[in-house]
From TrEMBL, chain A:
Protein name from the UniProt record: Hydrogenase maturation factor
Name of a matching Pfam family: HypD
GO terms for MF: 4 iron, 4 sulfur cluster binding; carbon monoxide binding; iron ion binding
Keywords noted in UniProt: Iron, Metal-binding
Matches recorded under NCBIfam families: hypD
Gene Ontology biological process: protein maturation
Keyword Iron included in the entry's annotation: yes
InterPro entries to which the protein is assigned, alphabetical: Hyd_form_HypD, HypD_1, HypD_2_sf
Family per record: Belongs to the HypD family.
Automatic annotation (TrEMBL), chain B:
NCBIfam families to which the protein is assigned, alphabetical: hypE
Domain PurM-like C-terminal: residue ranges: 182-333
Residue ranges occupied by any PurM-like N-terminal domain in the UniProt entry: 57-170
A GO biological-process term: protein maturation
Protein name: Hydrogenase expression/formation protein HypE
Annotated family: Belongs to the HypE family.
């Protein structure tokens, strides 16, 4: 594949691995957080960790849109489909995420709810146009990457007068989450205790929209270097080398490895679209990180008629995690998936207890699917299961 | 299978007018056992599937078993769309079962077919499907010797479902089984992977991308015959259909209680298939095939087997992709093209496109 294989070249990878080994100071450890699930996926899928010296460690971040969505939001989506009989359109990743009472969108669908898997917001619009007698709700989730397409869908619906289309908005914002994790790094004990980090591999696709400028507060406030890194394995390795150089030199600044797609200002047109259609939520709950102010978007008043939460009100669910599930700690980078008692015993991709085991961007799924041979005693799935706490 | 069966009547029947194969559609009467059904059988099924055993016209086909060990396999075929680049459900229903029979090293002989048709299916589509089935059966040297047709109400089927059962005979001395992989054995594939799954995906209505990938749907019994002639002691054969290469290797590893080590650069995958999978966030190792096989044989026979496969038109792109190893965990591991290593795990649920 042209323009793809170039970024997965084994020879170049070995060259970069040699440079990393040569430049990494054996007297210290480099704890680098890859923010995005896309990075986690690349690291495991291509075996990038194998090419790193032992003192360069990846800490997996919360950048998995499915993983950070609290269970209550999925419960509400199911309630919309069941109580109001709407056609709920969702991205595939979300279908198997556990909801309360051992439900999921997939199970609700099997029980008769009209839930459709879509590949883009345009699919949801097409469904609404085709079935004017149905109320079609787009279950919109994701970071800044998937937000502009939702904005376009809302504007299209307005322009076409599509009265049977609305959006259940769950879009979240990257900088707020990153700030929370770095703040937590200052806490060394208690519930809020964070993970110690030496540098950040910054978001890839998200940054094409919001620009590298959005991270400039990180070196300024927290003294940590950031390198915006592409999602291909060579991107990740080159970014690691750039971080190591900054750390070795005692520098902390935002560097952009992913220059083929990311600029300092980002995509201004997309930003303008988002600003027109959305407003920041005062506070929004993230699985693992709790309620974070200014960390999510809601639909602006001007588009309130397309807000599914206003059109189809449902009782706010309460977020209850599965007992023993360590997704929250995994999402903060405090625990590794293998530290969770459920990992690989009762929680596997076939029978996920937490969202991190569902999405291929989730750290648990990546550990299980690609990396469990690295463990001294690989866990075998048990037949037992646990109930929601 | 009582009076509704699509068996030819020994007595010639007369109908008021011929079936309208151009504009007609399947209706409930075509499954009712009455005249309409008899006419559908006579003017459509029999025309395309004709053979002496089917012509016996009984509720069963009577035949003398050939000498040797027999194998049988059954497979239900449901696919949307019914017609896709490189094939259709009719040919697929033949290839799928012929291949399952052939994976024992067998020569396939007979098929039976059960059709579940949805009210409203155009007769022209049904004829196209049955004609394709007949052509695929003749090409594979098998006869469809018994059949059945049912019709379900509109909305209760996906146009057409076809279940086929196959019977074949295994040559003496051939012992191919999923539990025979041993450490040191070589793992081969007969050609490029993922073509069928991507061809189907490319035609689903909500994926509007154009691709020139055609399904690899084809029967493999002739390739298998050439392979066992070259290397009679093939340990395992399996066609990586649903779940793709990854799932099939895991099945074999579990059944034989071994591990597998494969090399990513050695696995043949077309650039177009890689690109489509890349776009959709899918892994081609998990995408379905309908005309490829995995073979496992002793390491020192691998080159001979590979040469035999490559001289056959259906194995021109065959490759040795790895070896069987001792592993109490029965993992399938892959050395990535990038230089690292990872597990190639069982597929969990369906492969779903990623969000980011």
């Amino acid at each position: 594949m042209k323009y793809i294989d170039e970024f997965r070249d084994g020879t170049l990878a070995r060259g970069l691995a040699r440079s990393i080994s040569a430049e990494a100071d054996p007297a210290r450890t480099y704890r680098l957080m890859e923010f995005c699930g896309g990075h986690t996926h690349a690291i495991f899928r291509y075996g990038v960790q194998d090419l790193m010296p032992a003192n360069v460690r990846f800490v997996h971040g919360p950048g998995c849109p499915v993983c950070v969505l609290p269970m209550a939001r999925i419960d509400q989506a199911i309630a919309m489909a069941v109580e109001h009989g709407v056609t709920l359109c969702t991205y595939g990743d979300l279908m198997r995420v556990p909801a309360s009472e051992r439900k999921s969108l997939l199970k609700a669908k099997a029980e008769g709810a009209d839930i459709r898997m879509i590949y883009s917001t345009q699919d949801a619009l097409a469904i609404a146009r085709k079935a004017p007698e149905r109320q079609v709700v787009l279950f919109a989730i994701g970071f800044e990457t998937t937000t502009p397409p939702t904005a376009v869908a809302l504007k299209t619906a307005r322009a076409e007068g599509l009265e049977n289309f609305s959006v259940y908005c769950n879009h979240v914002l990257t900088p707020a989450a990153l700030g929370t994790i770095l703040n937590a790094a200052n806490e060394t004990s208690g519930d809020k205790a964070g993970v110690q980090l030496d540098g950040i591999l910054g978001p890839s696709h998200v940054s094409t929209v919001i620009g590298s400028r959005s991270y400039e507060c990180v070196p300024a406030e927290f003294g940590k270097p950031v390198v915006i890194a592409g999602f291909e394995p060579l991107d990740v390795m080159q970014s690691v080398l750039m971080l190591i150089r900054q750390i070795n030199n005692g520098q902390a600044q935002v560097e952009n490895q992913y220059t083929r797609a990311v600029t300092r200002d980002g995509n201004r047109k997309a930003q303008a679209l988002m600003a027109e259609v959305f407003r920041p939520h005062e506070t929004f709950e993230w699985r693992g990180l709790g309620f974070l102010p200014g960390s999510a978007l809601r639909i602006a008043e001007a588009y309130a008629e397309f807000d599914a939460e206003q059109r189809f009100p449902v009782a706010p669910g309460s977020s209850r995690e599965i007992k023993g599930c360590e997704c929250p700690s995994v999402l903060r980078g405090v625990m590794e998936p293998t530290d969770c008692k459920l990992f690989g015993t009762v929680c596997t991709p076939e029978n996920p207890m937490g969202a991190c085991m569902v999405s291929s961007e989730g750290a648990c799924a990546a550990y299980w699917s690609y990396g469990r041979f690295r463990q001294p005693a690989a866990p075998q799935p048990a037949t037992a299961s646990v109930d929601a706490a | 299978m009582a009076r509704h069966d699509t068996k030819q009547s020994p007595v010639p029947r007369r109908f008021a007018g011929r079936l309208d194969l151009e504009h007609g559609a399947v209706d409930m009467s075509h499954g009712s056992g009455g005249r309409a059904m008899a006419q559908l059988i006579d003017e459509l099924f029999r025309v395309h599937l004709e053979n002496a055993l089917l012509a016996q016209g009984n509720d069963q086909a009577l035949f003398e078993p050939p000498p040797g060990r027999l194998v049988t396999s059954t497979d239900g075929h449901v696919i949307s769309p019914l017609f896709f680049p490189g094939g259709d459900i009719g040919a697929l229903a033949v290839h799928g079962t012929v291949n399952d029979v052939a994976m024992a090293g067998a020569r396939p002989l007979y098929l039976t077919a059960s059709f579940i048709l949805e009210e409203g299916l155009p007769l022209a589509d049904l004829e196209r499907i049955v004609a394709s089935m007949g052509a695929a059966a003749r090409a594979a040297g098998v006869q469809v010797i018994a059949g059945d047709t049912k019709v379900v109400e509109r909305g209760k089927g996906d146009g057409c479902f076809i279940s086929t059962t196959g019977i074949g005979v295994v040559p003496d001395g051939i012992q191919i089984s999923g539990d025979r992989a041993q450490p040191g054995d070589a793992i081969l594939v007969s050609g490029s992977l993922g073509d069928h799954g991507v061809a189907i995906l490319s035609k689903r209505e909500n994926l509007g991308f154009e691709t020139e990938i055609a399904s690899d749907s084809q029967s493999l019994h002739d390739l298998v015959a050439a392979m066992i002639e070259a290397v009679p002691d093939i340990h395992c054969l399996r066609d990586p259909t649903r779940g793709g290469l990854a799932t099939t290797l895991n099945e074999l590893a579990l059944q034989s209680r071994v591990g597998m080590q494969i090399r990513e650069p050695a696995i043949p995958i077309r650039a177009e298939v890689s690109a489509a999978c890349e776009l959709l966030g899918l892994d081609p190792l998990y995408v379905a095939n309908e005309g490829k096989l995995i073979a496992i044989c002793a390491g020192d026979r691998a080159e001979t087997l590979l040469a035999a496969m490559r001289t056959h038109p259906k194995g021109r792109e065959a490759a040795i992709i790895g070896q069987v190893v001792t592993d109490p965990h029965q993992f399938v591991q892959m050395e990535t093209a990038f230089g690292g290593s990872r597990i190639v795990d069982w597929l969990a649920g369906e492969q779903l496109p990623r969000i980011c």
